[in-house]
Design a protein that fits this description.
receptor; six-stranded mixed sheet; glycoprotein; binds 2-acetamido-2-deoxy-beta-D-glucopyranose; Ig_V-set; about 350 residues; Immunoglobulin-like; alpha+beta; 3 helices; nine-stranded mixed sheet; disulfide bond; disordered C terminus
Length: about 350
Amino acid sequence: MTEVTRVLLLLRFLWTLTLSRGDADVSCVFMQSCVLPCSFQSDTDVIIHWIQTPGDLHVHSYYQNQDQLGNQHQNFRGRTSLFKEQISGGNASLQLTGVRVQDQGGYKCHTSTITGNKDGVIQLKVDAPVRKIHIEQVGNRITCSSQGIYPKPELTWSTDPPSSSKSTITVHPTEQQLYNISSSLILSDPVPDVIYSCRISTRTNTRRTTLRNTASINSSSSDTTLSCATSNSPPLSLIWRFNHSQIILSQSSDGHAVSKEWRQQVKSVSETGGLTLHQLSAEHQGTYTCEFTNKEETHISNTVLRTERGGERSSSSAAVTGLVFAAILVLAAGVTGLVIYRKKR
Ligand SMILES: *[C@@H]1O[C@H](CO)[C@@H](O)[C@H](O)[C@H]1NC(C)=O
Ligand SMILES: *[C@@H]1O[C@H](CO)[C@@H](O)[C@H](O)[C@H]1NC(C)=O
Ligand SMILES: *[C@@H]1O[C@H](CO)[C@@H](O)[C@H](O)[C@H]1NC(C)=O
Ligand SMILES: *[C@@H]1O[C@H](CO)[C@@H](O)[C@H](O)[C@H]1NC(C)=O
């Protein structure tokens, strides 16, 4: 074999490789807009037809220097456009808005000018990535769920330290052909400080949410620190809640806010979300929940705080307040009495 034939063989091999690679794939995100690329050798008398295959549905046509939508299939009504100013430069790309799962399939781009025709096919794929994962515990059942995912997601549980717990997974197709997924884990014997982790993944992404119930702590007379996540990266968002409802503080890229009711108690927040409280009294006894979110993960941590000493102090201070109030009343009554007495005179 000569050098030349070798090179020719290699070229032929590369050529078949490019051909057999087949159609170009375009990934579109559910409900967003997407561009299907197509180009041609520019010339006059441009004709463009975009056809969805199989089914040969008319998506968009253009000739005589304007859009021709008379035969457009209703699936595409009001959702397609060409880049008009760039057609003369050989750009026949199609923009599709509000992408839905039904849009998946092949799209043939047929172009023709005075000099010749060209056909190309694009495969459109739709993705609806996993967004928020909800996790909640009721009794000894932890439920993890997420909605509006495509293609069909997978869900796995894990615990740290490892343990064997039973779980069932249900996947519901929605009207928009997306998937809702949910799974419940039944805890055989709930012990504190176990991390329950729920991971949901689909073609384009994976998200994980963890739930941890730490051992309850007693507030100390000075500062009490509640830990949040074990992650080293700072959070994209952080929320501390009291008794599952009241927000103590929230922090995101937009800033940091401590609710009015908690300004006295919040002393500081650490890099990893740990909360230091002070001046706690009996009314601050309850469950503190931290929700820490970074790029791929959300960590939820519940801590029960007891405030025994604070309780005593606050009841004795209530007694003192009562006494002072009574004294003021007596004084006020006395003064009023004096005024009336003077007026009568
Ligand atoms: C056509 O123009 C659009 C808009 O400027 C651009 O996004 C796209 O990449 C172009 N396509 C080609 C094939 O040149
Ligand atoms: C899927 O989740 C969405 C959002 O919570 C809800 O509106 C819808 O009813 C759910 N569909 C099914 C089939 O479960
Ligand atoms: C908290 O207080 C309770 C009741 O007084 C006690 O049983 C428990 O050991 C204390 N826990 C810690 C961590 O100090
Ligand atoms: C918070 O929850 C704890 C335990 O359920 C309860 O004892 C306490 O009264 C609650 N506090 C408030 C202010 O609701």
